[in-house]
Write a structure and sequence with these properties.
The protein contains 11 helices and 31 strands. It is α/β, with parallel strands linked by helices. The protein has 3 domains: 83 residues, Immunoglobulin-like (Sandwich), CATH 2.60.40.10; 289 residues, Glycosidases (TIM Barrel), CATH 3.20.20; 85 residues, Golgi alpha-mannosidase II (Immunoglobulin-like). The strands form 8 sheets. It has an 8-stranded parallel β-sheet. Strands 24-25-26-31-28-29 form a 6-stranded antiparallel β-sheet, with helices on one face. It has a 5-stranded mixed β-sheet with strand order 1-8-7-3-4, with no helix packed on it. A hairpin with a 4-residue loop joins strand 10 and strand 11. It starts with a strand and ends with a strand.
């Protein structure tokens, strides 16, 4: 009898037909039963006559499995497995906790410290391995990544493998926005027939990420497409989602992002704005594991700097959290309060030197965003876009993965270490009203620990009147950029002046006196 650790992956493999179209003509569903709990899980065709059903058990004990299918070879197959206790390193999937923040399923705190490497899993093998090595050296616990390959500036190399049978009718060594306006006559893929090896490659790296403690924030659709994957239409979008979710819902570190820049897809004539609600409901309905699910907006500052009019309606019940592209990070507490859901600023301008405004932030600017977003109760996502020359072929982290060449990630690692060392399972935003708009402050829920970040501001003194009136705090002085620490030789209270050296990126870590 098979034993499966809680939140790990059970898999049943069956032999079945290879004739016809197994992706569209064969139905396979398994019922999983455990002590009154009954869950239906769809199977999928994995090529070469193999059919699979996967499930991530979330309850310990004995599970009975029975299939039903329109094909005799797959119908009424049974199995029994035991779900065993999770080991101490297995905290389960990340879930929403307390409505406005995250934790792992076992209750361990989780604050999103993300990064971005969109199409890293379709790069050459040496770049994929280099990406994993870079992630291992840093403290990111989430990565935004696409299922499909990407076509854009600095992204004109064709992948070694495609997700569908067929091939591109047109390719180009240079990028032009008109390439995204691919006509149906120029699409060379059969969207009814998947290439299992493409998805097996994706699965391999999702598992590698899980081994590193990193969540895979999977972007299901995106507009950066000259192959036609963004123009499959409702019928094949549905088939793709059903196949993808059947394959990946059993991976505990998967998150679903319906789209990167969903509204840009409408402007490009790919997927209309009114289609996303049914797409979101479909992903939710198909996923027996209930993974986190969101959708991400385009951001053009001349149009969107002072408003959120192009955001998707995050109040939709199938949306678990906000995935936002915006650099107005002061408003994070407002958005948390308004939507009563966790907020992640998944794009806030990348550290880099390319010619686009979204990719030429400084290392200090990238670091500053992390401190301000996270201390205001949100999650933050890093990105890097350094090039060695115009039109370079060298991998760029934001799109290809590989190496990091910047300096912000070292300070982001340092920040995460501070939170872990001081017991922050999540952040309660402080000083969100009144005269403290220039700083960012957050506390533990019990108010025993506060962190106050001053950024580029250099006050000689502050009155931290947002602290609890009756308490005194010992203070440690941190420099977020230099990564230095010293003790502040004074007690800090809500009504007394706190003196500070005039340096950029001062941070106070306050600990309540017993």
């Amino acid at each position: 009898m098979q034993k499966v650790e809680k939140w790990k992956r059970y898999e049943m493999t069956l032999d079945g037909p290879v004739d016809g179209n197994p992706y569209t003509e064969v139905s396979l569903i398994a019922e999983f039963v455990n002590n009154g709990t009954k869950i239906s899980v769809k199977g999928f065709y994995d090529g070469k006559g193999k059919y699979k059903v996967r499930y991530m058990p979330q309850k310990e004990g004995m599970w009975e499995v029975k299939t039903r299918s329109n094909v005799a070879e797959l119908n009424e197959k049974t199995d029994i497995f035991e779900c065993t206790e999770a080991n101490k390193e297995n905290h389960g999937p990340v879930v929403v906790s307390g409505k406005t923040h995250f934790s792992y399923a076992d209750g361990k705190g989780y604050i999103p410290f993300g990064t971005t490497a969109y199409a890293w899993t379709v790069q050459p093998e040496n770049i994929r391995q280099e990406t994993l090595a870079t992630l291992k050296q840093n403290k990111f616990n989430k990565i935004r990544m696409t299922v499909f390959p990407k076509n854009y500036s600095y992204n004109t190399e064709e992948p070694e493998l495609y997700p569908y049978e067929g091939g591109p009718k047109k390719t180009a060594d240079t990028f032009d926005f008109d390439d995204w306006m691919v006509s149906s006559e120029d699409i060379g893929f059969d969207f009814s027939r998947f290439i299992p090896e493409y998805f097996k490659n994706l699965e391999r790296y999702i598992d590698e990420l899980d081994n590193l403690g990193i969540e895979a924030d999977l972007i299901i659709f995106h507009p950066y497409d000259h192959w036609g994957f963004a123009r499959m239409g409702k019928k094949y979008n549905k088939l793709y989602i059903q196949y993808l979710v059947a394959r990946l819902a059993s991976f505990k570190n998967v998150w679903w992002s319906l789209a990167n820049e969903y509204d840009l897809m409408d402007l490009c004539g790919q997927i209309r704005l009114d289609e996303w609600d049914s797409i979101g409901k479909l992903v939710q309905d198909e996923d027996p594991s209930g993974h986190l699910l969101s959708i991400h907006n385009w951001y053009d500052p001349p149009q969107h700097k002072d408003n959120t009019k192009n955001w998707y309606d995050y109040s939709k019940p199938w949306i678990t959290h906000l995935s936002v592209q915006n650099d107005n990070v002061f408003n994070v507490p407002k958005w948390v309060s308004e939507y009563r859901k966790p907020v992640i600023i998944d794009e806030c301008r990348y550290e880099g030197n390319i010619e686009f405004g979204w990719g030429d932030n400084t290392a200090k600017g990238m670091m500053d965003f992390f401190w301000r977003i996270i201390l205001r109760g949100g999650g933050a996502t890093h990105g890097e876009t350094y090039i060695d020359k115009p039109n370079t072929k060298r991998p760029i982290w934001w799109a290809h993965g590989g190496k990091l060449y910047g300096d912000s990630q070292k300070r982001i690692n340092y920040f995460k270490d501070i939170l872990d060392k001081n017991g922050f399972s999540y952040i309660v935003a402080q000083a969100t009203e009144g005269p403290h708009w220039e700083l960012a402050a957050g506390s533990t829920p019990d108010l025993k620990k506060f962190i106050v970040y001053f950024g580029e501001n250099q006050p000689e003194f502050e009155i931290l009147d947002f602290l609890p009136k009756e308490k005194k705090y010992s203070a440690q002085l941190i420099n977020a950029w230099d990564m230095t620490e010293s003790k502040l030789n004074q007690k800090v209270t809500a009504n007394e002046v706190t003196y500070l050296p005039r340096n950029e990126f001062n941070v106070l870590i306050l600990t309540e006196d017993n």
